[in-house]
Specification:
Layout lengths: L1 E2 L10 E15 L2 H13 L4 H24 L4 E12 L5 E13 L1
Parallel strand pairs: 1-3
Antiparallel strand pairs: 2-4, 3-4
């Protein structure tokens, strides 16, 4: 499955637009990761634990979107947009959402 943020795929013709598809992943942060991140905030550097959570969330959201596109008979998704949002009463949850247009290429 080709997944791209661009509206077209160079060298390929879109023969059918099958509709919008989406994927979401909601992940919880934990107290240990928060503690290490607060230390990084003071001393500087990258917060590897949070980067891994973001990466995992993005991968899960894309997997869900691809599964939805396959159910429609698509062989590509164009115009993909990925968004990140903190949520929950204390912003301790992270939501990664992605959406795009499922298409059939010729």
């Amino acid at each position: 499955m080709i997944v791209t943020t661009t509206p077209t795929i160079e060298g390929r013709r879109i023969i059918e637009y099958l509709g919008p598809v989406a994927g979401e992943a909601v992940l919880g942060a934990n107290i240990v990761r928060d503690w290490f991140a607060s230390i990084r905030d003071v001393i500087g550097g990258r917060a590897g634990g949070y980067q891994n959570v973001l990466r995992d969330g993005r991968e899960h959201a894309i997997e869900d979107m691809v599964a939805e596109a396959k159910d429609l008979g698509a062989n590509a998704i164009v115009g993909v947009d990925i968004d990140y949002e903190s949520m929950g009463e204390t912003n301790s949850m992270l939501m990664v959402s992605c959406n795009g247009t499922a298409v059939r290429l010729g």
